[in-house]
Amino acid sequence: MQAQDLSSSTFTGTRRAPVTREPGAPGTDCVAEEVPVALEYNGISHAVMLATPLDLEDFALGFSLTEGIVDSRADVRDIVLAPGCGGLTVQLQIASGCFARLKDRRRSLTGRTGCGLCGAESLPQAVQRPAPLQSDVRFDAAAVSQAVQALNQRQPLRDASGATHAAGFADAQGQLVMVREDVGRHNALDKLVGALLAANRPAQDGFVVVTSRASYEMVGKTVRAGSALLAAVSGVTGLAIDLAADANLALVGFARGDRLSVYTHPERLVWAVAA
Known about the structure:
Elements (H helix, E strand, L loop, with lengths): L13 E7 L5 E7 L2 E7 L2 E8 L4 H11 L9 E9 L2 E8 L1 H9 L4 E2 L12 H4 L12 E2 H11 L4 H6 L3 E7 L4 E7 L2 H14 L7 E5 L5 H10 L3 E4 L5 H10 L2 E7 L2 E6 L4 E2 L5
Helix pairs in contact: 1-6, 6-7, 7-8
């Protein structure tokens, strides 16, 4: 898969910005970058998102899968990154069948950091329900707690800027094997899903942990990726609970330390029995 070298561009994950913390004390601070990223399929523009300009090939792969544009990694034939017009364009070539389907249900998407309905034309289109997970996999509650705690140590962009979200993938033992960051929580999750696809790592073999709240969109993306558990450091929404319940996804909120709030399918978690 081809990816254009962007080393000569000005885009990085962070930049320095002037700041005054108290009268007479000017300085500089590290802030997260946020640039327009256009996604183009077979020559036709589909969406413009605001994202951190790192791991954009992963982002394009993950977005394509979690939005139902493609069904697998094999449906994406090529990816090229092209800077210009103050942002970046990700040019994807996808299988003809996927492109025909995309044209049939094409909608206008204008993304932003906290994207919502993003131009959906009807309520059924806005709240799409993925096919339920068929896996009966279970995870130790201690492994989930371990992965969430490890995620806090694997966020260099957050540490530098204080302005990004992270999504991580952990194996069944709770070992955090992959992390992606972005100014947008949805983008971070899409980047993670894309990284799993690029590495040919099945999402059903582990679970997802995120630093944000868990909305219905985050639930939907996790289910489409194939993972059976989503753990969020913050809270969950009512619609996320409804969607997770229908999709056979274990939805965990307020995952902090050893405390977990399990909102759906608690049978997917195995709790240690006190001696």
